[in-house]
Amino acid sequence: MNEGALRYFMEVARSGSLSAASATLHVAISAISRQIAKLEEQVGTPLFERAPRGMVLTDAGRLLLAHARRMALESDAVLNSIASLHSSLGNEIRIACSQGLAEDVLPSAIAAFRKRHPATRFHVMVGVSAEIGRLVTNGDVDLAIAFNLQPGKGVVVRHAQRSPLFAVMSASHPLARRKQITLDDLRVHPLAVTSQATTTRMLLDMACNMAGVLIEPVYTSSHGGALYAFVRDSDAILLAGYVSVAARLRHDGLVAKPIDNLEMQSRSLQVQVMAGRLLPEVIERFISDMVVRLQSLDAATPRIKKKA
């Protein structure tokens, strides 16, 4: 397929109209339309539905878009690898991650990787799981490391491990000596939780709905660092994954206790990549290192004590 035609096709798919694509590409609408028509003739089926709201991809169009994105990413990766042979710039790895991983886990992994691969550059985007999945499938990032209830379409899960919620509190908190915490315990103590779109808040809401109870957090924020600081300096309890806080607990005088609730144990920590994409070697190396690091953290995670 013609590379220029695919570039026009991808822009029309992104912008939703020929006129918007024309403005972005600085190419006449008629030229873009001709290239789209040639692609449709080549594949033997329409790629877009011409609707009043704009150009909407057909099923065939969505398949071609996924293929075109993979081709573009792989071409860029090859060019970057060739350039790195004669340049100190090296390769760039673009990562999307959940906020709980952006404070300690991912920066430590990047720092360790760059000691062995100092020419590698990183760009990290932080978001919630739904946004992160779209970034992967759209080719805006090379991989995602995120908390998920279930993976979205168009991604391949390269690694997954259970990542239940923990109750994080001061070591002097009345519940700090407990081996594990229950939902009833959370009801009678101030609670700090991330905002609605996060998997943490979704799991709390699921647990409350299943138990038929209402828990109103005293502090809700989209910023995990703010929640952590609040709990560190108060008698409140923070809901968080163990990997998100493990490195700072002892230093800040906090403890993390497992929560004995099925709903709060029903998420996983996943490493995701675009389905069907051939990744550059440097990204594969980073994924391998990241998986080893995550497995080590998982091995150190406290578990629910099963009743005899």
Account of the 3D structure:
The chain starts with a helix and ends in a 9-residue tail after the last helix. A hairpin with a 2-residue loop joins strand 1 and strand 2. The protein has 12 helices and 12 strands. The strands form 3 sheets. A 5-stranded mixed β-sheet has the order 4-3-5-12-6, sandwiched between helices. Strands 9-8-10-7-11 form a 5-stranded mixed β-sheet, sandwiched between helices. It has helices at residues 3-15, 18-25, 29-43, 59-84, 99-102, 105-116, 129-137, 183-187, 199-211, 224-232, 242-245, 281-299, and strands at residues 48-51, 54-57, 92-98, 121-127, 143-148, 155-162, 165-170, 191-194, 219-221, 237-241, 254-258, 268-274. The protein folds into 3 domains: 3-69, Arc Repressor Mutant, subunit A (Orthogonal Bundle); 90-161 and 268-299, Periplasmic binding protein-like II (D-Maltodextrin-Binding Protein, domain 2), CATH 3.40.190; 165-265, D-Maltodextrin-Binding Protein, domain 2.
List the helices and strands and how they pair.
Blueprint: H1 3-15, H2 18-25, H3 29-43, E1 48-51, E2 54-57, H4 59-84, E3 92-98, H5 99-102, H6 105-116, E4 121-127, H7 129-137, E5 143-148, E6 155-162, E7 165-170, H8 183-187, E8 191-194, H9 199-211, E9 219-221, H10 224-232, E10 237-241, H11 242-245, E11 254-258, E12 268-274, H12 281-299
Parallel strand pairs: 3-4, 3-5, 8-9, 8-10
Antiparallel strand pairs: 1-2, 5-12, 6-12, 7-10, 7-11
Helix pairs in contact: 1-2, 1-3, 6-12
In short:
The protein is α/β, with parallel strands linked by helices and 308 residues long.
